[in-house]
Specification:
Largest sheet: 6 strands, mixed
Number of strands: 8
Strand content: 15-25%
Low-confidence stretches: 1-41
Order of helices and strands: HEEEEHEHEHEEH
Structural class: alpha/beta
Shape: globular
Number of helices: 5
Length: 191
């Protein structure tokens, strides 16, 4: 029997190759490299020209409370799909919280959707980044699937619903403070 031993540099290289395609999720507790429903985002935010109604999403928040998007009818709703195992999600979490704090007085509500994640890890994420808007727990990814017309194809992704309940903007991948703030402010000014 021949045993092959990988050296430390070889192990580091192998880990980098495995993580490179699947992101941080390959080495943490998120979906593995074989989960082809999500792809890397392009970090581009866009206003949707042909707006479609948002689906009637409902679920349970990470703190165990029921929540429906329709609870926020008449508001701009920023729906951010995130996971604790997602490095770009950790990077954009302070941006999400800051824009939420700055825009909630103008009728903007943020709702997180924690996807394909462990509940304990997700709750620790919220505490770490001091996120105080509600986050739905979507371990199975069913909420993401409800957005068929304009899908959130990556983690993170952000969909913004206008006051009429239509999907008005989308960002696939991490979103910058300036981009998110500008889009939310623009949509909040619509009548």
């Amino acid at each position: 029997m021949i045993r092959r031993v990988l050296t430390v540099p070889a192990l580091v290289l192998l880990g980098g190759v495995l993580a490179g395609c699947a992101g941080a999720s390959a080495v943490q507790n998120g979906p593995g490299a074989g989960d082809s429903r999500y792809v890397a985002g392009d970090n581009v935010s866009e206003i949707v020209k042909d707006r479609k109604p948002a689906p009637a999403v409902q679920g349970t928040t990470l703190d165990g409370k029921p929540l429906k998007l329709s609870d926020y009818t008449g508001k701009i709703i920023v729906v951010n799909f995130w996971a604790s195992w997602c490095a770009p999600c950790r990077s954009e979490a302070p941006t999400m919280q800051k824009v939420y704090e700055q825009t909630q007085a103008s009728g903007v509500q943020f709702v997180g959707v924690d996807i394909k994640d462990g509940k304990d890890n997700a709750q620790a994420f919220l505490r770490t980044y001091k996120i105080n808007y509600p986050s739905l727990y979507d371990q199975a990814g069913q909420i993401a699937l409800a957005f068929r017309d304009i899908p959130p194809n990556a983690v993170p992704s952000t969909l913004i619903i206008d006051r009429k309940g239509q999907i008005a903007a989308r960002a696939i991948g991490s979103v910058s403070y300036t981009s998110l703030r500008d889009i939310v402010t623009r949509l909040a000014a619509e009548k």
